[in-house]
Amino acid sequence: MRALTDGWLMAGRNMRHVVRAPEEIILYFTLPIMFVLVFGYVFGSGMTVPGQGSYREFLLPGVFVMTMLYGLGATASAIAVDAGRGVVDRFRSLPMARSALLSGRAGADLVRACLEMTTLVVCGLLVGWQWREGIGPALAAVALILLLRVAMTWVGILFGLLVPNPDTVAVVVFPLAFPLTALSNVFVAPELMPDWLGAIAAWNPLSATVAAARDLFGNPGLGGDSWPARHALELAIAWPLALIAVAAPAAVRSYRRLGR
Amino acid sequence: MTDDTTAVLADGIRKRYGRTTALDGFDLAVPAGTVYGVLGPNGAGKTTAVRILTTLLRFDAGRARVAGYDVASDPDRVRAAISLTGQYAAVDEVLSGRQNLVLFGRLRRLSARRARRRAEELLDRFGLTEAADRSAGTYSGGMRRRLDLAASLVVPPRVLFLDEPTTGLDPRSRNGLWTAVRELVADGTTVLLTTQYLQEADHLADRVCVIDTGRVVAEGTPEHLKARIGADRLELVVADATDLPAAATVVERATGAAATVDAELRRVDAPVADRIAVLTAVLRALDDAGIAVEDVLVRRPTLDEAFLRLTGAHADAQRVGVAS
Fold it and tell me: pLDDT of B189-207, one tens digit each?
C-alpha cells in the first residue's frame, strides 16, 4: 500500500519535472515521428513481405516496438541522473517505500509511453498503416506493446543504477539496442534469414511482441512454423513479465545499495 | 541504553571502505533535547558517522541506536524519527521550493491539504515565499540551504542531523540557521551537528566531541575542552619588534611557562595560571625594562587551540606507533 502511494507521489514528481522543463516533451514526439517516416519510407518503398501486403504495413508494428525499446535509454539516463543527485539522500533517509523512486519512474515513463504510442499510431495512419481486425484487437496489440515498454522500463532502471553516469548510459544503450532490433522480425521476417540467424530472431523477445501485434492489427507478415512464431501471443505476455520479475527486484536491491 | 534520555548512541562503530578505515571504534552518546557538536578536520569521519546514523550507510561492526531504535535492524523507525540536512542541499532542483516541501510532506504521510499548509508556513518562516514558485535550482546557495533545512522540518523530527550545515554560507544566512536550530531545540528536538567551525560548536553545542581518523579523541562541554588544553592565556603585542626577545623573557619569568612568539604580529603569548597576579607582574616588569606595549590581554583559549592540540597530539601518537 505504502509502496503504491509513495510510487504515485514519485511519479507525480517526475511528471512535474516534465511540466517545469517542457522542452523534453518535444523528444516524446520526435523519435516516434522520425522512426515512422525514416523506416516507413526508406525501407518501406523497396522491400517485400512474405505472402502479400505492403512492407510499410508489415514494418509499422515493428517500429512501434522499436520505439518502446529505445525508450529504455531515456529511462536509464533519467534514473542515473536522479541517483547522482543529492536529493536521493533525502529520499533514502525518509520513511518511504524503498521502491518508490523506481516505481515512480516506471509510472511516469508509462504515461510517456502512452503519449508516444498515440503519436506512433497517428503517424502510422498518415503513412497508410491501418488496423484491420477491429478496435478491440488493436487495443490489445497496443496493450502488449506497452507491456513490453514496462519491461524495458525496469531493465532501463536497473541499467541506470548499475551505470550511474548519465553520459555512459547514452553511449551504451544504442549499440545494445540496435542489434537487438536488427536480430528480430522488426525489419525482416525470420524465415528470410539464414537458419541460425532466423532462430535467434524468432526467439528474440521483441519478435514475440511484434508478431502478436501484427496478428492482432491484422497486418501482413505472420507465419513461419517455428515454435515461438506459433506461440507469439503467449510469449508476448510471458517475456515482458519474466523480464520484469528479474529486473524489478534487482533494481530495488541495487537502489538500496546505492552509496554503501 | 535505550531510555528516553539518550537520543543518539553509537558504540564502537567501525566502517571500512576497502583498505581505508573511515570509522575505527566510534563512540557517541547524545542526551535528548541537547545540541551535540561533532568536530573534526576534513576526512576525520564526520560525514561517514552521520550517514551511518541516518541509515544511509551500512557499517561493519558496533551498535547504533537513534531515538531508541536500532539503526541496523529497524531503519524504517529510525527514518521516521529523524531528518538529515547534509553538506549538499538535498532538494529537487527542478521542482519549485513549494513543490519540494509539499512532496516531502506527502512522503511523510501528511494529507495533501496539511502538506500544502505546512509548506506555506515553512516558506514564510525561512523567507522563501517570494521565491516559492521558482525552481530550487535557481536559488542562491543560502536560499537552497534554507529550503533544505525547511524540508527537514516539514514534520519536526525527534533527532535532526546537520552535516556541516553552514559550510559556504554567508554570515547572515549562518546566523539565521543558528537561530532556527536554537528554536528547534527549544521545542524539544535533539540536534547532532558536524562542523569544522569551532565557533559554530561553541555557539550552539551543549556538548562536543572531537574526532580524528575515525575515532573520538576528546569529549565534553566546550568549556571542558578548552580547559583541557590548560589555563587562560596571556597575550601581548609590543610596539617595536626588536623588543620581542626581551618581552618573551619577561613573560616566561612571570608565568613560569614557555612563551610563543609571533614575529609578524609582534605578539608574545603564554599560558597563565593566576590571571591577575601574572598580569600585574608582567606589566610592571615590562615597564621596568622600558618595553612599550601596544596591547595586552588575558583570554580563555579558543576552541581552535583545543582542536589543534587534540588532533595534533593524536597524530603524534600515531607517528610514534608507526615508528616502533
Answer: 999 999 887 778 888 899 9
